[in-house]
Design brief:
homodimer, alpha+beta, Arc Repressor Mutant, subunit A, Alpha-Beta Plaits, 2 domains, four-stranded antiparallel beta sheet, 5 helices, 5 strands, DNA-binding
Chain lengths: 160, 160
DNA sequence: CAATCGCTGTCATATTATGCCAAATCTGAA
DNA sequence: TTCAGATTTGGCATAATATGACAGCGATTG
């Protein structure tokens, strides 16, 4: 559903800000071949159009003592009644859940969870996850090693 | 493996920059209750210590015409020889793969893939994924709806 | 108590962000 | 091709920010 036409310069801007969101506007303008003024104007337009959703620092989990990443597949009762909404709300309110998707396949929901260690995960699993509304099955897959994470979107492979 | 002790102000800084990486240093300093000078110094220290890994713009995928997110579980032959390394390198070079983890459980690797649509995914699956070195099985789970994505890390739940 | 270490706030200066406006470029029609 | 209208750009002036030097404050240690 693209609402905005992006030209080559816009794509350069997006690629640059994906790579480093703290570039100054002067640096960014230089990189994409514009003067600062129109460059900043394009960035503002991209922000207001929602193409740029936000800017976030990416933190080192293990350095912060959050050493365990778990991918959790959850099955819930056939969707009807208030259970699905309740499940959604509960997941939204869990700070340990950093991503949650409704997916096709074996599981209904796929969650990415970040905690300190196995003990913390056990607590979360037994104390919260298993008690979420409508849950019938949970499979936990632990991330053993991360090869890639939050890589930039493939802007070089945009359609059109 | 925390190498650095973080105090309450450091955590506030991290939380703020996770939420909005384009805060000016003046705004950030005000938010965490410091003057700009020591605030900037702390940010630099956090960057150099690797606690802050980078700053990235988060882009709206559907707005960019990248409407399909797929979670792909891949099994590979029992790890030995050059196959694992070759697999890793191949995955690293695929821009459509925005995340890849070695995981426990059914699959060996869990990939997150972003493409324009089903046709693009079919092409990637048949043309590339199935031909990756050592692959014995692939299961594709399509994201139907995203409830949460790239949520901030749970800094309020740090150990210690 | 005195010395030291770490961290803070203040201040001056270099850089940057931002809005305005004229010039340049593009588009479509005659 | 030429021209008018619409869009976008670059330059400039001003306000805001980043950055580094420096002195002061507070905690710790001997």
């Amino acid at each position: 559903m693209p609402n905005l036409k992006l030209d080559a310069i816009d794509r350069k801007i997006l690629a640059a800000l994906q790579r480093n969101a703290r570039l100054t506007n002067v640096e960014l303008a230089d990189e994409v071949g514009l003067s600062p003024s129109p460059c900043l104007r394009r960035v503002r337009i991209l922000e207001e159009a929602g193409v740029i959703g936000g800017y976030h620092a990416s933190l080192n989990r293990s350095e912060l003592g959050l050493g365990l990443t778990v991918f959790v597949g959850i099955k819930v009762e056939r969707h009807h009644g208030a259970a699905p909404d309740a499940f959604r709300d509960a997941v939204r309110d869990m700070p340990e859940v950093i991503a949650c998707h409704l997916v096709s396949g074996e599981a209904d929901f796929l969650l990415q969870i970040v905690v300190a260690d196995l003990a913390a995960y056990e607590k979360l699993l037994l104390g919260t996850l298993l008690n979420l509304p409508g849950v019938t099955d949970i499979r936990s897959n632990f991330a053993i090693r991360t090869l890639k994470e939050t890589a930039p979107l493939p802007l070089g492979h945009l359609p059109q």
